[in-house]
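Today's session is about reading a structure prediction critically. Students often jump straight to the picture, but the first step is always the sequence itself: look for stretches that repeat, for charged clusters, for runs of hydrophobic residues. Only then move on to the predicted structure, which in these notes is written as discrete structure tokens rather than atom positions. Here is the chain we will use throughout the hour.
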Amino acid sequence: MKTKLILSGTIFALMLSLYACTPASNAPAPELVSVDASYAGKEVEIADGGLLTLTLECNPKIGLEWELKNLSDQNVLKLVNQKFRPPESGDASGSDGQEIWSFKALGTGKSTIYMEYRQPWQRQFPPERTFSLTVVVR
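Below is the predicted structure for this chain, in token form.
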């Protein structure tokens, strides 16, 4: 009798520990939408909670860089990361790398991203290029 009780307790504890190791939910990963310069002037949709990644060619060797000038509704979309990626060896695109901007969808609505490509010390002159994208969060 005592052996059965110990065995039952051990099995129960083992099952409980296995249950504790399983993921809390099978919720899907947040939606990831990737865009590049070809999306300039367009509109994209993303799910609430999703991540938008914007990749733009850049040439920092001559001081040109992308600058986020306006994010029209920061209750809808938030900048969460910006990084530089150097070109891969053998890249024939002519760029010196890419800037990768990541935005998180915070809530339903619409927000426009507006960026300028310029040398930061030459603000009195027009930018070399601009980029705008309207993001609809559903």
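Discussion point for the tutorial: The chain is about 15% helix and 45% strand.
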